[in-house]
Specification:
CATH architecture: 3-Layer(aba) Sandwich
Helix content: 25-40%
Strand content: 15-25%
CATH class: Alpha Beta
Largest sheet: 8 strands, mixed
Shape: globular
Order of helices and strands: EEEHEHEEHEHEHEHEEHEEEHHH
CATH topology: UDP-N-acetylmuramoyl-L-alanine:D-glutamate ligase
Radius of gyration: 18 Å
Number of strands: 14
Number of domains: 1
Number of helices: 10
CATH superfamily: Ribokinase
Length: about 350
């Protein structure tokens, strides 16, 4: 990827203040205190990629409130470009409250009513140099409501026209959609603009969902879902619409790269003791995009993504705990290399 651009990566979508339980292992009702971090999938990815040495910018929106100040202050200190982030009068910056009950219970609650980043507009995109990014990444949640939906699609159009690599992180949050099937309808419509898709197995299957009874959202993991269906069929359906590469994130099992015309390639992960799984997918995306920008093949890029995910699951939060480049490369080298 030798395109000369001002930014290696521009991400677009949600941002939030994330309140993580300090009482690890305690049931949600018994939590006594929280630590405040920055979150939101595209924002996490921009921070993670910046820590790996990429030049990054994020197009999100915040309210005219102290929470917005909190997010902008953190991003500025991290070196992520913030000058394209608008303030939205009459809205509030998003918030998320999270519990931590390892190994498999991580309940979280979104506060996104009158949320600033849902008000991102086409004009906001026009004020952002989308054409100056080598990679443009956006997420499924940003497609959930207008005017954010149209703005995200317009940005993907602009990025594709400029020759950037367009990456869609499926980011399926069932409770952010009025109908789980609407997620699939919307994603299928935007896939012709996308070069590469990142998602979990359940997220990929949600793209072809037609029966709402196939979705099981658990109380302990309200952000996620178990989706019935066939993964291979979902991958093929996506590839027929445009993107030739689908990367399925498998947690501790690593990742699988589905490249059109090639057999699936399993990329091994890194065994670690899990402290908090939240943010692992965003760390994976940051590492994978780092590999794309470096011109690596998909296997090596996914290996770097797996390293980022493995590192962040041993820590308390998301953006604030993303790995740095030297740290991630050393982590891989000490565990068998690429």
């Amino acid at each position: 990827m030798n395109i000369a651009r001002e930014f290696d990566l521009i991400t677009m979508g949600r941002s939030s203040i994330d309140l993580y339980a300090n009482d690890v292992g305690a049931p949600f009702v018994d939590i006594k205190s929280f630590a405040a971090y920055v979150g939101g999938s595209p924002t996490n990815i921009a921070v993670g990629a910046r820590r790996l040495g990429l030049r990054t910018a994020v197009l999100t929106a915040v309210g005219e409130d102290p929470v917005g100040d909190f997010i902008l202050n953190f991003l500025t200190k991290e070196g992520v470009e913030t000058k394209f982030i608008p303030r939205k009068p009459g809205t509030r910056t998003s918030a998320v409250v999270l519990g931590i009950e390892p190994p498999d219970k991580f309940p979280l609650v979104y506060y996104r009513d009158h949320c600033a980043d849902n008000e991102l507009s086409i004009d906001d995109v026009l004020r952002t140099p989308i054409a100056d990014g080598r990679v443009f990444e956006f997420s499924g949640t940003g497609l959930g409501r207008e005017p954010s939906r149209s703005a995200n699609i317009f940005a993907a159009e602009q990025a594709r026209a400029a020759g950037a690599t367009v990456v869609l992180d499926l980011d399926f949050r069932p409770n952010q959609w009025h109908d789980a099937r609407a997620f699939g309808v919307t994603v299928r419509a935007v896939l012709p603009l996308v070069d590469l898709v990142l998602g979990t197995e359940d997220e990929c299957k949600a793209v072809t969902l037609t029966d709402p009874t196939q979705v099981n959202v658990t109380h302990s993991q309200i952000s996620g879902a178990r989706v019935a269906g066939d993964l291979a069929a979902a991958v093929q359906a996506m590839q027929r619409r445009g993107p030739k590469v689908i990367v399925v994130k498998r947690g501790e099992k690593g990742a699988t790269v589905f490249e059109a015309g090639q057999p699936p390639a399993d990329v091994p992960g890194f065994p670690v003791e899990v402290y908090n799984v939240l943010g692992a997918g965003d760390a994976f995306a940051a590492g994978f995009i780092y590999g794309l920008v470096k011109g690596w093949d998909y296997f090596k890029a996914a290996r770097m993504g797996n390293a980022g995910g493995a590192i962040v699951v041993t820590r308390h939060g998301c953006a604030n705990f993303m790995a740095y480049e030297d740290e991630a490369l050393k982590f891989v080298a000490e565990r068998g290399g690429f």
